[in-house]
Amino acid sequence: MQRQAELEALALQCDRCQGCALATGRQQVVVGRGNPEARLMLIGEAPGADEDAQGQPFVGRSGQLLDQLLIAAGLDPQRDLYICNAIKCRPPANRRPKPAELAACRPWLARQIGLIDPQLVVLVGATALEAVLGIKGGITGLRGQWCDASAGPLQEELRGRRLLPILHPSYLLRFGRESDGSPRWLTRRDLAAVREALTAAPN
Ligand code: SF4
Question: Ligand 1 within 6 A of 105 CB?
């Protein structure tokens, strides 16, 4: 309960944030959803229109696809994980967040990581990779490879945690195919690896 209370306090503070220009266009700040006690944390990019309207991350089409893939991998989105974005306010026209916006919002993400204290962190898409590890591009080559945050802007907060980049579900929506090697097939495999790692990790 302590963690839940601290997360609620963080959300109240975040609601008032004017740390970057995205504050002017938002309907509401989108902080996170899921289980604050989970050992698995997913970090995505930024809220879209549905998330901005509902105040919850990953509730639009791509979020629904992500939930389906998580459930298929044996992960319950309400019980097994906490999910948030690198950026808490919707960028106009769903453009990619700018580096200055990622930097401005990073202290909120750092506090969330500290509060959730996850053993495993899944970086959902290229922007999460950039926000957390400071790596621009390269999601295609790095997805599915466990790593640690021995460098990057959040290395202190992520010390001792295992990280796995995966493709963003909005990218998967462009491909309907499920054949071997397709983006959806790769993501199913990556999430199965997450499930295995979570099962193997000590409680
Ligand atoms: S995106 Fe982040 S830093 Fe910018 S106003 Fe929203 S909460 Fe503050």
Answer: yes
